[in-house]
UniProtKB/TrEMBL annotation:
Entry protein name: Uncharacterized protein
Keyword line: FAD, Flavoprotein
A Pfam family annotated for this UniProt entry: HI0933_like
Cofactor(s) needed by this chain: FAD
Top-level taxonomy: Bacteria, Pseudomonadati, Pseudomonadota, Alphaproteobacteria, Hyphomicrobiales
Keyword Manganese in record: no
Length: 397
């Protein structure tokens, strides 16, 4: 059997977190081998943010993450902040802009972020092995890790697992990180697709699917969370930032409360409309508040005896306003990992050290990025977690 190749650090997964960790460790003089089965590094970076990569968020803070332990991310996020990553982007002369709500995107292309990271890796002497399948991982009695791959055996004193979550399997996402965690005695919390569009339940699909393409600002609420962002009707259900965000808080069977006209006094508008144009149909007032097609759809629930504003008493108008301000939707489900931006849940943070991301029970074993039970809100927070957790491990491997 050919002799195994020996380095200081093996990183599994050349995504955002793995590359960042490899760079940081390489800069410290550690010999790093970074292994991925994909033919190019950072494939999710390439497709992120509609091809422009929403690489961080100015307002990123531990409050913008979900985790079994909401305090776990604090240390890594403080040690390497969004300002640190912005400084790196600026040093590489990459132009960027704030789109909305603190979200920073490249002016040009997400590929600039990948080029920046690959240049940094080259400068730090990282050995990048692509198109390499990982067959097995083990640890011997001396605490040395061995990774068997399609390109031979590799040994190192530190093993960093950065293989991401399960979202978008056709881009190479696998559950390998969870399997390795379990192999070494770590608990994995329930994982589920998040930042994912909802689908209609069968009985609502015929009524709502014709609204595909309609979008509007809403407030979406579920299980104590609330987001003021846009909602988009699709052929299959509802999407848009408000729905993607709330999907991280939703469980099967839960109702989502949607305010379709936040900040508008719908009852007041209907009552004054009745005074000004009593013969007009209710849809004429609602159509000035909501997208016309949505207003028409909501008015199909009115009886023929409510054809004119004059036919509606104040109670009926308040009922219509109630439907607009507190529309209850129980989705049939979500589009699942096929389109989910991230995986909620992952390696239980109780088994990891906050500062280094190292296992508390197995020395030299680290988990970083999306594979860990730390999931960000939409808007650059997930990449910031990848950068911050990657640096945290890179400083300790
Ligand atoms: P990531 O998934 O990036 O990397 C894991 C790596 O491990 C991959 O290179 C994969 O090939 C490799 N791997 C997996 N299994 C393996 C195996 N068995 N053997 C070998 N290698 C294996 N976030 C954000 O902040 N801003 C944004 O704009 C977007 N946009 C966005 C769009 C879309 C369409 C998606 C799907 C996701 C986003 N995200 C995002 C989320 C973001 O992409 C995600 O949180 C990070 O990429 C996570 O980084 P990691 O390095 O942890 O995993």
């Amino acid at each position: 059997m050919p002799q195994a190749d020996m380095t200081d650090v093996i990183v599994l997964g050349a995504g955002a977190a793995g590359m960042m960790c490899a760079i940081e460790a390489g800069k410290r003089g550690r010999r790093v081998t970074l292994i991925d089965h994909a033919s190019a590094p950072g494939e999710k970076i390439r497709i992120s943010g509609g091809g422009r990569c929403n690489f961080t968020n100015i307002h990123c803070s531990p409050k913008t993450f979900l985790s079994g332990n909401p305090h776990f991310a604090i240390s890594a996020l403080k040690a390497y902040t969004q300002r640190d990553f912005i400084a790196l982007v600026e040093r590489h002369g990459i132009a960027f802009h704030e789109k909305a709500l603190g979200q920073l995107f490249c002016d040009g292309s997400a590929r600039e972020i990948i080029s920046m990271l690959t240049r940094e890796m080259a400068d730090a002497g990282v050995r990048l092995m692509l198109s390499t399948s990982i067959h097995s991982t083990s640890r011997d009695d001396a605490g040395i890790y061995e990774v068997e791959t399609s390109d031979g055996r590799h040994r190192a004193a530190s093993l960093v697992v950065a293989t991401g979550g399960k979202s978008i399997p056709k881009m190479g996402a696998t559950g390998l990180g969870y399997d390795i965690a379990r192999q070494f005695g770590h608990r994995v919390t329930e994982v589920r697709p998040a930042l994912v569009p909802f689908t209609w339940p069968d009985h609502l699909a015929p009524k709502w699917k014709d609204l595909s393409g309609v979008s509007l600002p809403v407030t979406a609420r579920c299980n104590g969370a609330s987001f003021d962002e846009a909602m988009l009707f699709t052929h299959r259900g509802v999407s848009g930032p408000a729905m993607l965000q709330i999907s991280s808080y939703w469980r099967e069977g839960d109702s989502i409360e949607i305010d379709l006209a936040p900040g508008v006094d719908v009852a007041g508008e209907l009552i004054s409309g009745r005074g000004e144009r009593p013969k007009a149909a209710p849809v004429s007032v609602l159509g000035e508040i909501l997208p016309r097609r949505l207003a028409q759809q909501l008015c199909t629930d009115l009886s023929p005896a409510q054809a004119r504003l004059a036919d509606l008493g104040n109670a009926a108008m308040k009922a219509i306003a109630g439907t607009v301000h507190a529309h209850h939707l129980v989705p049939g489900g979500t589009e699942g990992y096929r389109t989910a931006e991230v995986t909620l849940g992952g390696i239980d943070t109780a088994g990891l050290r906050q500062k280094s991301m190292e296992s508390t029970s197995v020395a030299g074993l680290f988990f970083i990025g999306e594979v860990v039970d730390v999931t960000g809100h939409l808007g650059g927070h997930n990449f910031q977690w990848a950068w911050s957790s990657g640096v945290a491990a890179g400083r300790h491997v």
